[in-house]
Amino acid sequence: MASNMEELYSSFPDDVPTAPLVTISLQKLVAEDGKEKERLFEASKSLGFFYLDMQECDHGKTLLSGSEEMFDLMERFYELPVEEKLKYDFAAEGKYFGYIGLGAEVVDGKGTREKNEKYNISKDDILSQSDPLPAPSIITNNRPALSNYIHANNRVLTTLFSSLAESLNLPASTFTSLHRLSSPSGCHIRFIRAPPQPIDQRTLTLGEHTDFGSLTILFNRIGGLQVKLPNTTDWVYVRPMPGCAIVNLGDAMVKFTAGILRSNLHRVVSPPGSQADMVRYSLVFFQRPEYDVKMRRLEGGLVDGVPKDDGEVDGESTREWLKRRHQGRKGFTMLMNLISRVSPRTFASTFLAVIESLYQENKKQWITSVIVKNLIKLFLRYLHLSRYCSWPHH
Ligand SMILES: O=C(O)CCC(=O)C(=O)O
Ligand SMILES: [Fe+2]
């Protein structure tokens, strides 16, 4: 490891509370070590976050060196002028992939802006399984490296999925068969860059959320990521560890296992201690189920032992689920944009004026039925969602 990278890791302060993530050895999982598989299962049920030690394992070493290559690429991408990067912002066309500028999304109910830039690179695009989105030459020239990185993640994910399936007494291929590289899906690489903030604004960078997908493989070099410890109100830092990825489970795994596995709340704040003066880069690979996979509990194994409850719906496809989740987030941001532009008084009086004019147009019955219908819908959705996961999601 380059010495400046070692310095980065060791600049994480010793006096901040950190999360007790266990370290799982990829090498031991590959060697079918039963005890290690059990540790992975336990970590996936209890916190839903763990370190994955990549050393001493060929697939791990390939992913590690790939992540270093991606960090270099990410830094070069972010050096592009903002006007250039904005050419690849396709949010207005309703696209999820591409560039998202500083402050484009909100982090909380007060309308505070995100303090990072993001760039989402689709797996299907890089593997030439969908129409390519326009991208800067720094990205198009590096499509082979991006493709290698996707494959490297996939190999490691296969090991994790097989081990988890076996621990659930399901056939080893249960999860891998829902995540085939060759099938269309929302899997993507994300580059994140957060510049240092002035002292009085060192708060949230990325709002609290659980991930939508199945498994997330994250590489951090400096701190900032925090997890909320289960059954507490405590947010604690995840200390980046050299040679390790940070892995977390997303909501899809909770759905598939009827709540046996856990997707935990997390967020990003300014890096701790002296790291607060540094630019923070973060590299993420989001593994999501194939678009046609139904978001519902699997049949068999330990999942069958979880009592079914009446609120459980048959399951929408992953494509619909992702659309709903992304729209929910976009709607939240739009509402916050609107509210933050006008005073609460103006907002309330405009809202009342609209209702009043509709009443005057004899739309009384219509309004009442819409309000009642939506309240029932919201309530049912709340009952259903709150069992599995928290909100908002990413
Ligand atoms: O930057 C990080 O460490 C975490 C990012 C994250 O949670 C996300 O993009 O969903
Ligand atoms: Fe996340």
From TrEMBL:
Keyword annotations of the record: Iron, Metal-binding, Oxidoreductase
SUPFAM superfamilies hit by this protein: Clavaminate synthase-like (SSF51197)
An MF annotation (GO) of this entry: oxidoreductase activity
Gene3D superfamilies listed in its UniProt record: B-lactam Antibiotic, Isopenicillin N Synthase, Chain (2.60.120.330)
Keyword hit for Ion transport: no
Record-annotated Fe2OG dioxygenase domain positions: 183-289
GO biological process: small molecule biosynthetic process
Family annotation (PANTHER family): 2-OXOGLUTARATE (2OG) AND FE(II)-DEPENDENT OXYGENASE SUPERFAMILY PROTEIN-RELATED (PTHR47990)
Family designation: Belongs to the iron/ascorbate-dependent oxidoreductase family.
Protein name: Clavaminate synthase-like protein
Protein species of origin: Massarina eburnea CBS 473.64
Lineage per the UniProt record: Eukaryota, Fungi, Dikarya, Ascomycota, Pezizomycotina
